[in-house]
Every structure is written in C-alpha cells, then in structure tokens.
Amino acid sequence: MASSYSTRSSRGPKSSADDGGFQKGFYGINGTVHNKGISLLKKKKKKLHYEDDIRANCKNMDHYKDSADKLHSALMLLLVESKASADSLATSSIPSKIPVDPGYQHCSDYLAVYESIQKHGLKELKLDSLDPIVKATKKLADEQEKYVRMQLETLKPLTKFISDEYWEFAKAKYVYQNALEKFENNANGNKSIRPGSMEPSASGLSVEKTKDDAKSKMMVILNKITVKKESHALCVIQFSKQASDWHKNVGVVLAPFNTKPTEEYKPKAGEGEAKSLVHSSRTKKVHRKTSKENSSR
C-alpha cells in the first residue's frame, strides 16, 4: 500500500482558486520582493464558492505564473551560471553590479601574472607574448557584463510580471476573498434580509457592493496582465536571438587564437614502397609456413 506521503506527492499542484491559498514556492517570495504583505497573502483561507468564470480565470493565472517562474529562473541560471546569482535577479530593478561569472576576468588576471613571472630571468629566450590573449579575455569579461545587463533589460516585461504585477493581482484577489467570505457569512446568517420582508437589508447591500467592487478591481488587474502576455513571449524570443549573437561574438574574439590542425605525416619518396615490400615478404613467409604445417598433418 502506498504511503500517504507518496499519494499526496503524486497529485498535481492545486490552484489558489481551489483551496483559497497560494502555492508555496512561488518565485520571488524568498527573495527581495518590493510588495508588502506577501506573508499575509500566503495564508490559506477557507474554501469559498467562486463563480465559474472567476475560478477559471484565477486558476489559469496561477498556472501561468508557475510556468513564468520556471522559465524565468531557467533563463537567469543560463545567463549568469550561478543559482545564487540567478535567484537575486528575480526583481524588476536591475542591480548596479551584475553578478556575472568571473571566469574570463580570472583567466585574464592569471595570464597577465603568469607572463610577468615567466619572463623573469629568461630575457635571453624568445617567448611568445601572452598579451593578445590577456586583452581578449579582458574584452570578453567586459562584454559579458554588458551582455547580461542587455538581457536583463530585454526580459523586463517578464521579470516585472513575476515580481510586481502578479502580486498586485494576488492582493486584489485576497481582498475579494475577504469580501466574498463576509458576503457568504452574511447570507448564511440571514442578516442580509430585512425582518418580515424579502428585501435585502442595508448591511446586506453594503457587503454585496463591497464584494462586487473587489471582484471588478481584481478582474481589471487580471485583464491587464492577460494583454501583456504577448510582450512576455516576445521578450523571451528576443532573449534567445541575443544569446545566439553573443556566442557568435565570442567566437569572433577567440578566432585568432584557434590553433592550426596538425599536418598529416607524409612518407618520403621510396619510404612507403620499401615498407610495403618488407610487409609483403613477411606475409608470404608466414603463408608458406602455415601451408607446410597443414600438409604434414
């Protein structure tokens, strides 16, 4: 029998529209998030009776957010090649110091020091200068920082969604959930009906109006995000094109240092013929010896 843990882990992630809460592990919660009250939004609320269109819209938005989180985190990891640095870039504001991989800079510094040590006391020897390689790796280090900054600018529409815009929607949904909960409690307690009549009381009308206003505000924010989905896709496409151009530029910078392929060895005149004659004579002797042994048997 499968354990209760394995049964729960095999289920797909629930939407916040289903259980009234927010998924754990949303990208950016543990990082620097400018929106206040994120911890409040993470608290689960009791299951509420959403309207069908609201439930579907909230569910789709949560799934879209989850996919955007995974895509953005993967692109950041590809860009800076460090998980810690990638997680720090989950905000819409680009840092003043870009956390790039220091490999090119370390290579440039190492070769510069190595060349100075190599030349010490060996002035009579003619050594190839490492200065071109030092300059090339230094140039790649500078270009890499510019490239990462450019890619962060390109992905701003997607980054702004996961770090800012979604949380505006989450706050509006939280307000709507509270209003809906009060409305249901009011209706279940029959406080919305005037005594001796079927007309709603003043308090019932006020609660219903608050719920409708919260719903309208939430849907306005959701529709704004939906319109921007095309810009999210376009910025990712632009990111891939610029990544391809970056690798081409690296190849251009490193092209002068590509070593020539080793020339294939060509035997001197007559050398190949002599070897072939020796080989053929040995083969004939072995063949004759084998034939004599077989005939004696």
Automatic annotation (TrEMBL):
Coiled coil residues, start to end: none
Protein name: Uncharacterized protein
Start-end of Basic residues biased regions: 281-290
Residue stretches of biased makeup (Polar residues): 1-13
Transmembrane intervals: none
Location of region: Disordered: 1-21, 187-210, 261-297
UniProt feature, compositional bias: Basic and acidic residues: 261-276
